[in-house]
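All the exercises in this workshop are built on plain-text protein records. Sequence and backbone structure share a record, each on its own labelled line. The structure tokens are whole numbers drawn from a learned vocabulary of backbone shapes. The record below serves as our worked example for the rest of this section.
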Amino acid sequence: MSKIYDIEVEIQNLRENLTELIAQKENLLDPQVIAASKMLDSILNEYSKIINDKVEK
């Protein structure tokens, strides 16, 4: 499998996790929600960089 596919799977998992946390905590400022959001942001940035690098080639 490609790195892009692996990242897409990870993004989907992190999104599902974040959605579940938000439903459980009902508070977007909960430390666990913030941590999950930061993890998702980080992997989305990595994904974006990979895609942009491929487009520029």
Summary: The two ends are 21 Å apart (CA to CA).
